[in-house]
Design goal:
This protein is an alpha/beta fold. The protein has 14 helices and 14 strands.
């Protein structure tokens, strides 16, 4: 199947072809016709399978074909939990249609500049909930002409405490709007909340909820607590790693680990909530450009980092919630490419890892390296799988037949 068969117009098909992306991913094949029909939708698919394009392509087509609204009226609103994800969506939108007027509203950026952009008018607003609410309370933004509302990574927004704010935002949009909800994980509580704000939504699941992509090989290294940093150095310096994303649980841990890696001459930077938006953007840009081989991050980056060819994700610390593990490791193995996910587990982490295995339905192979004080309580051997390499449009959007050339 190609994009023509999904009902997209010639302009968008040509944009896909110009970017060498010809074959839609499963979530795109199922979601795009539903969205074009005007039906509300709940989409659940693994990270890296093209959810962003699954809503951007039909959204753009509807903007071009639906009835004209007042000049400058906001007709589509996309809510994202983190600044990084908002920026990523905006970048993808720009690649698809440079002419559509869109603005990004998020914390860490100038409110005055955003107000100026809002007054100039835009068809699409991409926003984080907190900053958007600030502008709504100051009567800077009008959502009364919204035709499409997209909640991207809605479960994460609930985890971050955004849902009361999101409810207030939804109340300012027309009841006739189309509502789309996308996520890699969809807990029953999230789905119930979503359904209370949607009209008979169609549910699309292209993978088991909470399950990581099959293109990711998952391993865990048991280690004594005092040897975790030494084991990380060992892995980074003796194995072949092209581009590595290392997750820590805390901001202080990310700072500490980044400085230790830098002292050992690793090309490294870090992203966490205490860094300014320009610092976070510079770190991510350097990682994308290859200036940094290692990026250390907290869970702020689990759903916002969109970098091609991340070969490895390393969980220096396991996340607090099993669902966050799925999002973390989803930064590798994207769009059909192979990836490696490594977790360093101390004895106290074993129960957390078992909770992750229960959620994903996948056993994680334990690898014991002598000299690091680890003990194995459970060993699972996983057979090698054959995986096709496929290209991606900014990781979350398209697959390509020609990308590997």
């Amino acid at each position: 199947m190609n994009f023509t068969e999904l009902g997209l117009n010639q302009f968008l098909i040509q944009r896909c072809e110009s970017l060498d992306f010809l074959e839609p991913t499963p979530i795109q094949r199922q979601a795009i016709p539903v969205i074009l029909s005007g039906t509300d939708l709940i989409g659940c698919a693994a990270t890296g399978t093209g959810k962003t394009a699954a809503f951007l392509l039909p959204l753009l087509q509807k903007l071009h074909t639906s009835a004209k609204k007042p000049t400058g009226a906001v007709r589509a609103l996309i809510l994202a939990p983190t600044r990084e994800l908002a920026v990523q969506i905006a970048d993808n939108l720009q690649k698809l249609d440079k002419k559509v007027r869109a603005i990004t509203i998020m914390g860490g950026a100038s409110s005055n500049r955003q107000r100026t952009e809002i007054r100039r008018g835009a068809a699409i607003v991409i926003a984080t909930p907190g900053r958007l609410m600030d502008h709504l309370e100051n009567n800077v933004l009008d959502l009364s002409h919204i035709e499409t509302l997209v909640l991207d990574e809605a479960d994460r927004m609930l985890d971050m405490g955004f849902w009361p704010t999101i409810r207030q935002i939804i109340e300012q949009t027309p009841s006739s709007r189309q509502t789309l909800l996308f996520s890699a994980t969809m807990l029953p509580a999230i789905e119930n909340i979503a359904r209370s704000n949607m009209r008979d939504p169609q549910v699309i699941e292209v993978n088991q909820r909470g399950k990581a992509a099959v293109t990711i090989k998952q391993t865990a290294y048991p280690v004594a607590l005092e040897s975790k940093t030494t084991l990380l150095f060992h892995l980074l310096e003796r194995e072949r790693f092209d581009r590595v994303l290392v997750f820590t649980r805390t901001r202080r841990g990310a700072e500490r680990l980044s400085h230790l890696l830098s002292a050992r001459k690793h090309q490294v930077n870090r992203i966490h909530a205490d860094r300014s938006q320009p610092q976070r953007e510079a770190a991510l840009r350097g990682f994308k450009n290859g200036n940094y081989r290692v990026l250390v991050a907290t869970d702020i980056a689990a759903r916002g980092i969109d970098v091609d060819s991340i070969s490895h994700v390393i969980n220096f610390d396991l996340p607090d919630a099993p669902e966050d593990y799925v999002h973390r490791i989803g930064r590798t193995g994207r769009a059909g490419n192979e990836g490696q996910a490594i977790s360093l587990i101390t004895p106290v982490d074993e129960l957390s890892l078992r909770a992750i295995e229960k959620l994903t339905g996948q056993d994680v192979e334990r690898i014991l390296l002598p000299g690091f004080g680890g003990t194995v309580t459970k060993v699972v051997a996983k057979p090698a799988t054959q995986m096709n390499r496929r290209g991606s449009f900014s990781g979350r959007s398209f697959s390509s037949r020609r990308a590997s050339r």
